[in-house]
Amino acid sequence: MQLLDHLRAEHEVIERAVGSLQAFAAAPGRSTEDGRAYLRFFRLYAGRFHHAREEESLFPALVRETAAPADRGPLKVLLEAHQAMAHLLDLMEPLLVQGSDIGTLASRYGKALLHHIDAENSVLFPEAETRLRRAGVPELADRPPDGEEAAAREALEVLLAKYPPQEIPDLIRGDGCVSCEAYGEGCDGVEREWWTELEWEDVFHRIG
């Protein structure tokens, strides 16, 4: 499914941007113009382009075509994560454009974004592909980045060269619902939230 392939590829770009932001946060004499470039990337490319296509194309298709609930479980958790990360970015904005210390917020934002990416790559996207194909939906609506979004993505390359990505200390990543911070605290996992009796029976049959 082309949209999902595009979203996965964009995750790789966003991960590199998160690592570069950590390097920027630790650099002495941070440039306010570079801070604005990071802000444009995360707000325009990661937000208005990447997250928006999930919210406007993927999530509604799962609700409409596969009866995935929007008011609980994975979709509600992921949408709330988009909103929470946008709020963190708003908190970082004055620090980014003033050259102030952003180490703590950059780490919080990066951890949230990387955990979100892990949840989508390891749970949402594989489950969505299976469920949508079973529902007879081979492809979803997609769009290319607009001029501002493309410019924000292009500007990231300059930032990556200037601030090579760094790991976030103490970050523990993992695949599957049990690695998601929302598991058991707002979502009981994709199997309990989404699967039907037929899907459970098929699993038991495959396992033997």
Can you put this structure into words, describing what you see?
The chain has 208 residues and is mostly helical. It has one domain (2-207): Four Helix Bundle (Hemerythrin (Met), subunit A), CATH 1.20.120. It has seven helices and no strands. Helix 3 packs antiparallel against helix 4. The radius of gyration is 18 Å and the shape is globular. The mean pLDDT is 91.
Keyphrases for this structure?
single chain, 208 residues, 7 helices, globular
CATH fold title: Four Helix Bundle (Hemerythrin (Met), subunit A)
What is the CATH class designation?
Mainly Alpha
Roughly how many Å is the radius of gyration?
18 Å
* Mean pLDDT value: 91
Total beta-strand segments: 0
Question: How is the topology of this model organized?
Answer:
Blueprint: H1 2-26, H2 32-66, H3 73-98, H4 103-134, H5 147-162, H6 190-194, H7 197-207
Helix pairs in contact: 1-2, 1-4, 2-3, 2-5, 3-4
Task: Provide a quick synopsis of the model.
By secondary structure, the protein is an all-alpha fold. It has helices spanning 2-26, 32-66, 73-98, 103-134, 147-162, 190-194, 197-207. 72% of the residues lie in helices and 0% in strands.
